[in-house]
Amino acid sequence: MLRHDRYRMMVALGLLLIAWVFIGAVSAKPKLIELPDFVEYQFKMHPESNLPMAKMKAGEAALNVELALTSRSQMNGLMHRYILPQNAGMLFVFAKEAPRSFWMKNTKIPLDIIYIDGKGVVVDIVKAVPCIADPCPSYPSKAPAQYVLELGKNESDRLGIEIGYQFRLSN
């Protein structure tokens, strides 16, 4: 009788453990990253990167940006690109503000790296050049950023984007 009770207790504990793991897995919802209010989602994918597309405004210009929402897309960024058209770029979207640092490993074109806080205000701009030798230099932000916009060389100057610039969906 004692052996039978021990067996029943082990089965019950096993079932409780399975239920606990299952309930934890079902209730663990993936964390969704919200798009900033200065971005309009386009419901289409970029033909080369297969990343979602969005529109942003910079002054009178409409920018077409690829959205880097996952760690994988953020890690790849604009690597191995030889051309970045005018008014095009990539917006890296993070869950919260934090110090950010980017590098140009395998990036073939010079870029303007624009660090943006959670309110859509530009906190830093870096002129980054392609990395030609390891180790590649990093380009850290001078202030915490939640978003990072990469545009082609000197696009920030052409568009009038500077530190303190406030991104808005419409002007």
Q: Please, could you describe this protein's structure?
A:
The protein is of the alpha+beta class. It is 22% helix and 35% strand. It has three helices and nine strands; from the N terminus they run αβββαββββββα. The chain has helices at residues 2-27, 71-76, 155-159, and strands at residues 40-45, 52-58, 61-68, 88-98, 101-103, 111-116, 122-128, 138-140, 145-152. Strands 1-2-3-4-9-6-7 form a seven-stranded mixed beta sheet. A hairpin with a 6-residue loop joins β1 (40-45) and β2. The longest helix has 26 residues, at 2-27. It is elongated and about 85 Å long. Mean pLDDT is 86; it is low at 25-30.
Any chance you could write out the topology, listing elements then pairs?
Blueprint: H1 2-27, E1 40-45, E2 52-58, E3 61-68, H2 71-76, E4 88-98, E5 101-103, E6 111-116, E7 122-128, E8 138-140, E9 145-152, H3 155-159
Parallel strand pairs: 3-4
Antiparallel strand pairs: 1-2, 2-3, 4-9, 5-8, 6-7, 6-9
Could you list some keywords that capture this structure?
alpha+beta; 9 strands; 171 residues; 3 helices
Outline the biggest β-sheet.
Answer: 7 strands, mixed
The strand line-up of the biggest sheet is 1-2-3-4-9-6-7
- Number of helical regions: 3
Secondary structure: helix percent: 10-25%
The secondary-structure element order is HEEEHEEEEEEH
Mean pLDDT: 86
Global shape? elongated
Strand content: 25-35%
Could you name the ranges where pLDDT drops below 50 across 5 or more consecutive residues? Answer: 25-30
Query: Could you tell me the number of beta strands?
Result: 9
Q: Class by helix and strand content? A: alpha+beta
> What is the C-alpha radius of gyration, as a whole number of Å?
23 Å
